[in-house]
Structures are given as structure tokens and as C-alpha cells.
Amino acid sequence: MIKLILDYLGGYLGFLRGSIQDLLPIILVIAFFQVVILQKPIPNLGQLLVGALLVVIGLALFIRGLQISLFPLGDAMAHAFTRKGSVLWLLLFAFFLGFGTTVAEPALIAVAGEAAKVAAVGGMIEYTEASMDDYAFWLRLTVAFSVGLAIAVGVMRIIKGWPLHYLIIGGYLGVVIMTAFAPEEIIGIAFDSGGVTTSTITVPLVTALGVGLASSIKGRNPMTDGFGLIAFASLTPIMFVMIFGMVI
Amino acid sequence: MGLFDHIINVLLDTIRDVIPIMSVIIGFQVLVIKKPLPNLGVIIKGFILVILGLAFFLVGLQEALFPLGKLMAEQLTDPAFIHGTVVDPAQAINWHEYMWVYIFAAATGFATTIAEPALKAVALKASDVSGGTVSVRGLRVTVAIGVSVGVALGTHRIVVGAPLHYYIIIGYLVVIVQTFFAPKSIIAVAYDSGGVTTSTVTVPLLAALGLGLASTIPGRNPVIDGFGLIAFAALFPIISVMGYAQLGQWRYRKQMKKLGKQRQESKHGSDK
């Protein structure tokens, strides 16, 4: 395993340089504010340097890995499904990909727990462990379902060639209208769950799937039709969580 | 907890996160597609790199950058730092006293977005698909500028205590109007970039900043205000990416017009 890491780091110094550039702004911001504005020494400098080194190596490995693995994988699955020609299986795959990657997402579990507390304090549900756990569980299922639905609808859009902006604008209008009516406590959580659903591994895979589909279906443009799955996946949880907040 | 234990723990967590994705892919590959994947060896190797990379990345963030970032957010939002002295909470809040908080928010938003791996993935793909018309760095910097403007405005909102939904509603209306005028090819990428900015690096630091602000300013609710910043970070990149494309289009048209004029003038010149 160590040999594998060294192989890639040694062979791809460019990736390492790229990830140093990616991290540099953060280091500069921290140094500037800590030393110049707050006028305090940087605490645990050694630990900070070790952390920064890990971030740089991690980013380099991740980017290399997604280029040789996640991108080709999403692409290959897209082509395989197009050759198979079964829309139903493709939609099911899209749904499960969205549902499966979201339901176990740690950030979502955290947000759902937080939301249950807010709901209990606000008197929407009983302030007991059981009812809070129940609330958090159903909220998680709601979000995961909405992401699965989003990827499936997004894939359907690519197949049919529906214009993205009408769907997204419709969605945004829905969000805007709902924001005006939903209980205020749920709004922040709704928007937050829109953000947490698109995890770092899901994004490259789903992007590659969309672009792969758009380039293997005749008459679709990868640029205008291939992207947009992530947009769906971050839009529907906002709507569904607000509905969830209004219903419960 | 030692560094090594931390790495192992995060590695196990990452593997656990990947299991649902793997099982969906393997399940469909074996039961539905029924054909072996091309280059299976390389894909497995790449998957290992992705998992290892993500684990190192997360450990590095958690060991060093997050604690320090959160500490700084607390210090910057500390009333003693902002007002110079400890003031009584009854005193009115001057929003311009928080200038360093806005600048910190903008700088953090920008810097964390540049380091966001999911955004890099989308940018790589967009550059690839557009044949280089959309550059990897250009897209990432544009998105980062959007995030930084968004969170600066978001922190200002927390300080003055304006209702979140006005900002959200106006922001989305701007996005809708822009959609009709922006070049068609950028719209999908712009929408996607709104979703990827609020990820691994950005969310924890912004949440800390929002919570720090909301808990030191009297009358703010940490739950509502802490979360709100993330909504800003997701909304503004859409505006900035479409705006950047519109700017490019506008400059292109102006140049074409100028070129056309010049051509006409030189035609007239040769006629004489």
C-alpha cells in the first residue's frame, strides 16, 4: 500500500504541486489573520505543518484516484446502460446511487440529529429520546429519497433532452415559495441538507455518469445536457425537508 | 488520540461511507449489466487511492486546519476584540465594527473553496468536455469569488439581524433572471457549482464562524443563523459563474462589433 502511494506521488509530482497550490490560500488566510490581525503566535505550529502535509498528499492521491477510477467508472457505467437500452434499469441505478450514497452520509446524520433537537425544543415533537430518534430517522430517509429521486429525474432529463433551466427554475421557484411559508427553524436545516448531500466521492461519479450519458446518447451535448445532476441533488432535499417540516 | 490512530479511524469511516456506493455499482454491474468492467485492476487501484487520499485529507483538516480556523473565528467574533473593550449588551451594535469579520469570512470562503476536492472534480470534467473553453482554474476562482461574496454578505446579515429568507428569495430571483441571458453552455455547470461548494472543507469552518457570531451578538439564534451561511455559500457561486460567462459573452460581442466597424471603415477608406 505504501509502495502504491509512493509510486503515484513520485510519478506525479505535478499533482503534488497542484495540491500545494490548492492549499496555499488557506495557509495565507490563517497566517495573515492570526499574526497580523489577532496578533497572536500560531499555536501548535508543528501539528499545523503535519496537518497541511497530510492535506496536500491526500488531495494529490484523491485527484489522481478519481481520474483513473471514478471518472472512467461513471463513464463506463453510462455507456453500458446506453448499450443495454433499458431506461428502467438506468433510472433504478440512478435512484439507488443517490439514495445509497446519501442515507449513510455522516454529515447528514449529524444534521438530522441537530434538526430533531430543534424540533423538540420548538415543541413540534415530544422532547423524548424516542421521538427525536424517530424524527431524525425519517428526516434522513426523506433526504436520501429526495436525492435518489433527483438523480433519477436528472438522468431522465438527459435521456429525453429536456432543457435543464426550466426544471431548475421551477424548483427554485418552489423553494422560494416554500421558504416564505415554512417554519423558520426548518429553513436553515433545509438549506444545509441540500449542501451535505453532495459528498466528495458522489460528485465525481455522478458528474461522470451524466457526461457519459450525454455523450453516448445521440443528439445530446455533454456540456449543456451532461451537467446538472448535482444541481438536482442539492435542490430536491431543500424542498423535501421543508415539506417534511410543514407536515410534521 | 495519536495521529496514527486518527488516520486509521478516518480510513475506516471513509471505507464505510464508500460501501453503499460500491454495493450499488457492483450489484448493478453483476446483476444487470452482466459484463466485466474494462480495466478493472486500474479502477480498483484508483478507488484505493481515492479512499486513502480522502482519509489523509480529512485527517489533515481535522488535526490542524479546523481547530485553528474555529479558534480564529471565535477570537474574531469575540466582543472584546470587536469593540476593543467589553461593552454592555444593551448598547446598539454598529455593523461596521465587524469589518474584520466580513473580511475574514470572505477570505475563508475563497480559500476553502479553492481547496474543495469536489469542485476540482467538476472543474476538471467541465474543462475536459468544453475542450478547454472553461478552464479549470478560471472556474474554480470564479466559484470561490462567488462564495466569498456570499459569506461576507451572510455574516453581515447575521450582524444586522435581517431575515434570511429575503436574501434567499432575492438571490434565487437573480439566478432565474440571469438564466435567461447567460450563454446556454455554462448554465448547467453554474448550477452544479452551487452544490459542490458546500462540502468537506467549507461547511465546518463557515458553520463555526456563523455559530461564533450568532452566539456573541444578543438576539441572534445560533441554530438559524449558523446554518444560514451555508445557503449563501451555495447560492452566490451560481450567480458568479453565470455572471463571468455573461461578461465574456459581452466582451466578445463588443469586440466583434468593433471589428465589424473597423472592417467597414477600412472598406470606406479603400473606396476613396
CA-based gyration radius of chain B: 24 Å
Bulk shape of chain B: flat
Mean pLDDT of chain A: 85
Cα distance, first to last residue of chain B?
86 Å
Question: What report would you give on this structure?
Answer:
The complex is a heterodimer of chains A (about 250) and B (about 270). Chain A has about 250 residues and is mainly α. Helices cover about 85% and strands about 0% of the residues of chain A. Chain A has helices at about 1-10, 15-35, 45-85, 85-105, 105-120, 130-160, 165-180, 185-195, 200-215, 220-225, 230-245. Chain B is flat. The model of chain B has no long low-confidence stretch (mean pLDDT about 85). The chains are: A mainly alpha (about 250), B mainly alpha (about 270).
Question: Could you list some keywords that capture this structure?
Answer:
heterodimer, A: 248 residues, mainly alpha, 11 helices, B: 272 residues, 10 helices
Please outline what is shown here:
The complex is a heterodimer of chains A (248) and B (272). By secondary structure, chain A is mostly helical. Chain A has 11 helices and no strands.
SSE topology:
The complex is a heterodimer of chains A (248) and B (272).
Chain A: H1 2-11, H2 13-37, H3 45-84, H4 87-103, H5 106-121, H6 129-160, H7 164-181, H8 184-196, H9 202-216, H10 222-226, H11 229-247
Chain B: H1 3-33, H2 40-77, H3 79-83, H4 99-114, H5 117-129, H6 136-160, H7 164-181, H8 184-196, H9 202-216, H10 222-271
Helix pairs in contact in B: 1-2, 2-9, 4-6, 4-9, 5-6, 5-8, 6-9, 6-10, 7-10, 8-10, 9-10
